[in-house]
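Suppose you are handed a protein chain with no further information: no name, no annotation, nothing but its sequence. What can you learn? This example shows the usual starting point.
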Amino acid sequence: MRRRPLLSVTLTGVPMSVLILGLILFLGIHSVSIVAPAWRDAQVELRGERVWKGLYGLASLAGFLLLVYGYGAARQTPVVLYTPPPPLRHVALVLLLPVFPLLFAAYLPGRIQRAVKHPMLLAVILWSIAHLLANGTLVDVLLFGAFLIWAVADRISVSHRAVPHRVPGAPPGAFNDIAALSAGLVVYLGFLFWAHAWLVGVSPVG
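A reasonable first move is to predict its three-dimensional structure. Written in structure tokens, the prediction is:
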């Protein structure tokens, strides 16, 4: 069932370049450690870690707002590249099942984090693939394809870094895996039956 989404853009004629600019800015700032780790370390040393993190955060926020606005605008006049068969939508829902538990596991060190090593990147990869299986418009391919390429590139990059980057989070604990699984499944069900339709305007199960 379709209805007017919260993130819909009422203005018409917004170019696809807004989305592209947002992707370049958001994924670009998140790719500095992939393509220019020495430059990043030099900037942290020159400006200080707090200043660098502030600039990093501002650039990320600006890019995120641009890509959300551009995606919402482009969805109003979709260009269909392919039409996924209905069974792939069910496959997508299965692929999305571990996404939120993996995101929580990135901040809750436990067996899941040790087994996966980089749960956040795996979550982004699964999220991107699932949406590409379920959506075949140009704007969807651009958005989720870009995130998929970035996540795969970053996963390859971190495996070759001498000093691996650690995501700040809770201290290791025996119950972290239970918390990650429980919270992740609750959020998944929330998105499945309510939040996705509220934010995007399309119900995954409708």
